[in-house]
Amino acid sequence: MKFKFALSAGLVFIAGMGLAFAGNAVPAQPSQKTLVQEDAKTKEFKNILVQLVRQDEYLDEAIEILDTASGRPSQEDIAAVGVSLKAIAKNLRNVSALNKAEFAAIQPGSDLAKYTNTILSYSRKVDRKSVQVGSLIAQLSAKNKKAAMRDAVSSRKGGKKARGKKLTEVLAEQRAMDRLAADARALRGASRDLSATSKWLYIASK
Asked: How distant is the alpha carbon of residue 126 from its chain centre?
C-alpha cells in the first residue's frame, strides 16, 4: 500500500509542477512556435519523471524483500528479485538514453531547468537505493554461504543419498545468489550512468 501511495504522490507532484511553473512571470512574450516547442519538451520531461518515480517504487519493493528476508531467502524470492532488478536496470538505461537525446536539444536558461533539477534529484535517489540493494544482497550471500557449509557437513553425515540431494540444493541456491549479485552490479552500473546523464542534462539547461 505504501508503494502505491508513494507512486501516486510522486505522480501528483509531477503533474502539479506544470501548474506551479505556469505562474512564473516572463520578461517577454515568447513566440507561438517557442511555446509549442516548450510544451512538447515539458511533456517529454514529465515522461522521464514518471519513469523515474516508477523505478524508485520498484526499488523499494526489492529492498523490502531483501531486507525482511529471515535467514536464507527462498529460490523463488531470489528469482523474483533478480527479474525485478534486470527490468529496473533496463529502464534506467532507457532513461539515460532519453537524457542524452534531450541534452543535444535543450536551451540554456529555460524554465525546463526546474524539471531537469527534479530529474537529477530522483536519479541520485535511485542511485543510492541501488547501492543499498547491492549491500543487502552481499549480506544475504554471506549468510547463504555459511548456511550452505552447514548443510554440506550435515548431508555428509546422512549418507550418499542424502548428500546427493542436499548438495544439489546447496549448489542451486548458491548459483541463484551469484546471479542475483551480478544483477545488482548491472543495476549499479545503470544507476551511475543515469546520475551522470541527469547531471549533464541539468547543467545544460541552466
From this structure: 5
Q: Quick one: pLDDT at residue 203?
A: 92
Walk me through the domains of the chain, giving residue ranges and CATH numbers.
2-205 (1.20.58)
Q: What is the pLDDT of residues 78-131, one digit of tens each?
A: 888 999 999 999 999 999 999 999 888 787 877 888 899 999 999 999 999 999
Cell 517557442 belongs to residue: 34
Maximum CA extent, the chain: 86
End-to-end, the C-alpha distance of the chain in Å comes to 37
d(CA 56, CA 59): 5
Taking alpha carbons only, the member of 77, 53, 83 closest to residue 64 is 77
Please report, as a single letter, which amino acid is at residue 52. L
Q: Which amino acid is at 171?
A: L
Query: What DSSP state is assigned to residue 26?
Result: -
H helices present in 68-159, as ranges: 75-103, 113-157
User: What are the grid coordinates assigned to 75, written together?
Assistant: 529460490
Type of residue found at 164: G
Residue 129 burial by Cβ neighbours in a 10 Å radius (0-12, 13-18, 19+):
buried
